[in-house]
C-alpha cells in the first residue's frame, strides 16, 4: 500500500469531451414534427459559377449531386417578347404552351440557379451558373425585364465577359448526374420550381443544346419526364391551396421565416433556395407530407 495514498485528495475528473456544433448542420429531423427538414437559416451559401472557377465547381456539384434527393431550379431570362392576344386565364393549355415555346425558343437564358438537398444528411447547397450567350445588341429581349434584373444586381456585360456558355453548362449537368437522357434507377429525385413553366422550359432548352421545344404539350411533358423524371412540383400551385399565403416566392419565404441566402440574395440561386425551403415546409408542415396531386402541374401552363 502506498503510505501517501490518503494524504492528498484525488485529482478532479477530466472534463467531458468538447463537441463543436457546426452552424450549417441542423438537428435531426423527424417527419412527425410540424416543420421543414430545411432549417430557416441565413447561412445557406451560394456558389457563383463563372468561367474561371467552372472546373472547381463542377467537381463540387458532382460530389453533392450523387445523393441529392431534391433539386430546385430557377432561370433568369430577358423577359418575354411574345404576348397573348387575350386574357392569359382564358387561353387553353395548348395556347399557353405555344406562348412559352415561342418565347423560350427565341430568347436566351441569363442565369440558372440550382439548390440541392440531401434529406439523409441534411445538407443544402446552391449554385448560380452565369451564362454568357446573351447579347443585348442582337438578341431579342424586353428592356423592362433587363432593367428589373439589373436592379437586383445582374450585369449582362459581366455575364458576357466572364460567364460560361449554355453548351458547357449542359455538359456539366449531364456529367454531374443531375440530368440523364435515360430513366433514373433507384428512388426518384424530386424537382422543385416556383411558377415554373418558363423555368422548366429553359432548363430543357439548356440540356438539349438549344433545340426548339417540342411542338405541343404532350411532347413537352414527355421531354420533362425523360430528363427530369415524373416528380416535378411547382411551389406556386402548392401555396395556392394553403390559407394565408402571400403572393410571390420571396414573400412566401419571408412569411415562413426563411432568410435570403448568402452570396446572391436576389438572383437565380436565391430563388432556387427559397423554392426548395418553401416546398419542404409546405409539404410537411401544411400538406401532410402527401403532394402527389401537384405532380407535374406547372403554374403558367397546366
From TrEMBL:
GO cellular component: CCR4-NOT complex; cytoplasm; nucleus
Transmembrane segments: none
InterPro entries: CNOT7/CNOT8/Pop2, RNase_CAF1, RNaseH-like_sf, RNaseH_sf
Main location: cytoplasm
Subcellular localization: Cytoplasm; Nucleus
Cofactor: a divalent metal cation
An example molecular function term from Gene Ontology annotations: RNA binding
Keyword Nuclease attached: yes
Role description: Ubiquitous transcription factor required for a diverse set of processes. It is a component of the CCR4 complex involved in the control of gene expression.
Family statement drawn from the similarity comment of this UniProt entry: Belongs to the CAF1 family.
Subunit structure as annotated in this protein's UniProt entry: Component of the CCR4-NOT complex, at least composed of CRR4 and CAF1 proteins.
This protein's name: poly(A)-specific ribonuclease
Amino acid at each position: 500500500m502506498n503510505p501517501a495514498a490518503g494524504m492528498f485528495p484525488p485529482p478532479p475528473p477530466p472534463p467531458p469531451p468538447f463537441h463543436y456544433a457546426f452552424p450549417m448542420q441542423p438537428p435531426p429531423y423527424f417527419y412527425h414534427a410540424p416543420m421543414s427538414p430545411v432549417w430557416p437559416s441565413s447561412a445557406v451559401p451560394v456558389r457563383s459559377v463563372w468561367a474561371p472557377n467552372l472546373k472547381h465547381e463542377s467537381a463540387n456539384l458532382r460530389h453533392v449531386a450523387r445523393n441529392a434527393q431534391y433539386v430546385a431550379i430557377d432561370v433568369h431570362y430577358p423577359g418575354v417578347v411574345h404576348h397573348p392576344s387575350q386574357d392569359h386565364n382564358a387561353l387553353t393549355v395548348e395556347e399557353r404552351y405555344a406562348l412559352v415555346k415561342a418565347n423560350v425558343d427565341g430568347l436566351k437564358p441569363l442565369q440558372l440557379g440550382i439548390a440541392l438537398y440531401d434529406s439523409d444528411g441534411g445538407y443544402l447547397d446552391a449554385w448560380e451558373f452565369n451564362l454568357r450567350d446573351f447579347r443585348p445588341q442582337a438578341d431579342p429581349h424586353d428592356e423592362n425585364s433587363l432593367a428589373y434584373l439589373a436592379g437586383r444586381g445582374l450585369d449582362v456585360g459581366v455575364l458576357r465577359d466572364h460567364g460560361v456558355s449554355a453548351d458547357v453548362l449542359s455538359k456539366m449537368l449531364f456529367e454531374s448526374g443531375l440530368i440523364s437522357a435515360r430513366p433514373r434507377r433507384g428512388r426518384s429525385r424530386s424537382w422543385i420550381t416556383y411558377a415554373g413553366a418558363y423555368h422548366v422550359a429553359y432548363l430543357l432548352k439548356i440540356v438539349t443544346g438549344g433545340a426548339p421545344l417540342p411542338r405541343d404539350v404532350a411532347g413537352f411533358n414527355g421531354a420533362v419526364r425523360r430528363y427530369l423524371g415524373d416528380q416535378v412540383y411547382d411551389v406556386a400551385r402548392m401555396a395556392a391551396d394553403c390559407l394565408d399565403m402571400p403572393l410571390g416566392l420571396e414573400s412566401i419565404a419571408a412569411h415562413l421565416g426563411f432568410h435570403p441566402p448568402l452570396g446572391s440574395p436576389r438572383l437565380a440561386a436565391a430563388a432556387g433556395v427559397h423554392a426548395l425551403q418553401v416546398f419542404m415546409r409546405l409539404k410537411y408542415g401544411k400538406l401532410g407530407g402527401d403532394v402527389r396531386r401537384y405532380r407535374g402541374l406547372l403554374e403558367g401552363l397546366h
